[in-house]
Amino acid sequence: MFYHLYEINRALLRPVAELAHAGARAFSSPKGWYAGLPGAPLLAAWLELMYRLGKDYPKPEFGIEEVQVGNARVRVIEEVVLRRPFCRLLHFERRGGEQGVQDVLERSPTVLVVAPLSGHHATLLRDTVRTMLSDHDVYITDWIDARLVPLDQGPFTLEDYVGYVRDFIRFIGAQRLHVMSVCQPCVPVLAAVSLMAAAGEPVPRSLTMMGGPIDARNNPTQVNELARTKSLEWFERNLLQRVPPNYPGYGRRVYPGFLQYAGFVAMNPGHHMKSHWDFFGHLVRGDLEDADTHRRFYDEYNAVLDMPGEYYLDSVRIVFQEYLLPRKLWRIGGNLVDPAALTDTALLTVEGELDDISGRDQTRAAHELCANIPAERKQELLVQGTGHYGIFSGRRWRERVYPVVRDFIRRAAGAPAGRAA
Q1: Which comes out higher in pLDDT, residue 266 or 49?
Q2: What is the SS3 string spanning the chain?
Q3: Is it the case that residue 33 has pLDDT exceeding 70?
Q4: 237-270 pLDDT, tens per residue?
Q5: How far apart are CA 408 and CA 403, in angstroms?
Q6: Who has the most CB within 10 Å: 13, 184, 316, 366?
Q7: Separation CA 346–CA 374 (nearest Å)
Q8: Residue 237 pLDDT
Q9: CB of 26 closer than 8 Å to CB of 36
Q10: At residue 96, what are phi and psi to the nearest 5 degrees?
Q11: In whole angstroms, how far apart are CA 308 and each of 190, 243, 305, 405?
Q12: Over 50: is that where the pLDDT of 129 sits?
């Protein structure tokens, strides 16, 4: 019922937001006479702020059309290469004009970036993908908003997530593949590769795990404490809703994006209030570049998706309450998830010193679990002065994290393909 009320309220606000948008353009356009009225910049700023606080934020596009590879600019073609009910596998194909450039592209290591299914769209990793494309052939998981998946497609669980990852690895080809998981997928990715190794299947050459809750008992954050102190029934009763009839997924149980967004903002409300106030000031003063930076960030940050209810409850229980992976008690399809089955797959963990979502040493715990990977094929990076998003996006990612990831993958690419114990 709460989801239905939210949709009604959103429908009522939509014309108000559009009217505010039209007013903001009228009072800020240098071609119109409204902009010359006294107080026009102030009024235009207020109207745009009102518009941005009330508008809908659709799923953004990756919009990566070309990248720099060595001394050449090459085209990037985004294509869907595999479809599943709850996810699309995207490939960013690079096309070079000259034969020498194309040869370089074909020799590049192949990387599967597993994006988080935790509220935001995969486009949150746009900077990650764009940077990786300069040296790698990149695929990414593009998770589908659960409210858009018809009910007859069945449920989606954490076990299904692990199965999707295994399917994607097989489709691309494990022998030449390097997998990078960012935040939430570190757990299902490690589970998927461990099960493949235990079954004697080919496994990726390397795993790069960034800011993920491999062992959420270490240095618990506010997110971990909430999961630990509330019962699973509390999450089911208070956070799960049924999709309203105006969406293809009508009737599906989900953790709605608007509730997740409220949780994101509640973690640091002062920061967001200051950011919007600064945006208002930029508009009044005519600082168009700073104002546009704000728009780009919040166009991404405010675009959220609904998560399947079964998957969300599984994640809370298995990852944040019972810690089944680090306790070596997690079974999928009757098979024990044991990272000790990995032997030759290289392992890199990346953590942010100031990460308030996945605490310090939560990702690093993967090294102890992967006990049979030789020490010389393990590497860890702690990024000083960096929070959660800084390890995969922004200047610190590009200048301090990416060079380590790139060199790690290069070394792993020259080693024999991973094998099972």
Answers
A1: 49
A2: CHHHHHHHHHHHHHHHHHHHHHHHHHHHCCCCHHHHCCCHHHHHHHHHHHHHHHCCCCCCCCCCCEEEECCEEEEEEEEEEEEECCEEEEEEEEECCCHHHHHHHHHCCEEEEECCCCCECHHHHHHHHHHHCCCCEEEEEEECCHHHCCHHHCCCCHHHHHHHHHHHHHHHCHHHEEEEEECCCHHHHHHHHHHHHHCCCCECCEEEEECCCCCCCCCCCHHHHHHHHCCHHHHHHHHCEECCCCCCCCCCEEECHHHHHHHHHHHCHHHHHHHHHHHHHHHHHCCHHHHHHHHHHHHHHCCECCEEHHHHHHHHHHHHHCCCCCCCCCEECCEECCHHHECCCEEEEEEECCCCCCCCCCCCHHHHHCCCCCHHHEEEEEECCCCCHHHCCCHHHHHHHHHHHHHHHHHHHCCCCECEC
A3: no
A4: 999 999 999 999 999 999 999 888 887 777 778 8
A5: 8
A6: 366
A7: 8
A8: 94
A9: no
A10: -100, 145
A11: 21, 10, 10, 32
A12: yes
